[in-house]
């Protein structure tokens, strides 16, 4: 091959590569949709965390008495904390664990009523229909085991809030329970 032929081949290859144009990158629609869903889930998680932190702060301000104990139940983990008031009694973990089991039993027995409240909320808010909601239930009980107060996060609307409050007012613990505030999570799924 002659030198002119080689130069012609190299120039031809260079021109062919230059004619190809710029590479255009397009997002995969499925990946973009999955990213949007992930971002939405992250925002919802952040909202739940913020609501839980606000609820914790509110409970500490409003309900903190020297004899109250807060019991958080997350899955199989049980966390027992004395309130921030002065002169807290020592936390009897066996009593707290027994009362926590009683509380979980009370919530489990109310599961059907809680689901009915959720079904009513679904009729009013179609945005809930394709999602599973993790409801954080917080309930306070007096030393005699009587129901004092409750709160739920996230709020699913006035209808749900009124209904679930009515369900919670029927809750009671054994009379020998220490004054406690319980927190647990209930998963709600459209049926």
Calculate the terminal CA-CA distance, rounded to whole Å. 78 Å
Order of helical and strand elements: HHEEHHEEHE
Q: Report strand %.
A: 15-25%
- The side-by-side strand order for the widest beta sheet comes to 2-1-5-3-4
Helix count, per DSSP? Answer: 5
Could you estimate the helical fraction of the residues in percent? 40-55%
Explain the overall architecture.
It is a single chain. It contains five helices and five strands, in the order H-H-E-E-H-H-E-E-H-E. It starts with a helix and ends with a strand. It has one domain (27-188). Strands 2-1-5-3-4 form a five-stranded mixed sheet, sandwiched between helices. Strand 3 and strand 4 (147-153) form a beta hairpin. The chain is elongated and about 105 Å long. It has helices spanning 3-19, 29-63, 93-109, 111-124, 158-168; strands at 69-74, 77-82, 133-141, 147-153, 180-188. Helix 4 (111-124) runs antiparallel to helix 5. The chain is 49% helix and 19% strand. It is α+β, with helices and mostly antiparallel strands and 191 residues long.
């Amino acid at each position: 091959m002659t030198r002119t032929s080689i130069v012609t081949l190299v120039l031809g290859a260079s021109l062919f590569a230059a004619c190809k144009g710029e590479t255009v990158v397009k997002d995969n629609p499925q990946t973009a949709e999955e990213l949007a869903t992930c971002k939405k889930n992250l925002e919802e998680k952040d909202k739940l965390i913020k609501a839980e932190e606000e609820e914790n702060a509110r409970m500490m301000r409003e309900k903190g008495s020297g004899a109250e104990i807060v019991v958080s139940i997350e899955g199989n983990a049980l966390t027992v904390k004395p309130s921030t008031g002065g002169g807290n009694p020592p936390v009897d973990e066996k009593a707290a664990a027994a009362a926590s089991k009683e509380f979980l039993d009370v919530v489990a027995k109310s599961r059907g009523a809680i689901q009915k409240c959720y079904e009513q909320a679904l009729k009013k808010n179609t945005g809930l229909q394709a999602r599973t909601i993790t409801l954080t239930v917080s309930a306070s009980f007096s030393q005699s085991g009587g129901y004092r107060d409750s709160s739920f996060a996230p709020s699913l609307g006035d209808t749900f809030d009124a209904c679930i409050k009515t369900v919670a007012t029927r809750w009671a613990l054994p009379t020998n329970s220490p004054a406690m505030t319980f927190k647990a999570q209930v998963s709600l799924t459209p049926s």
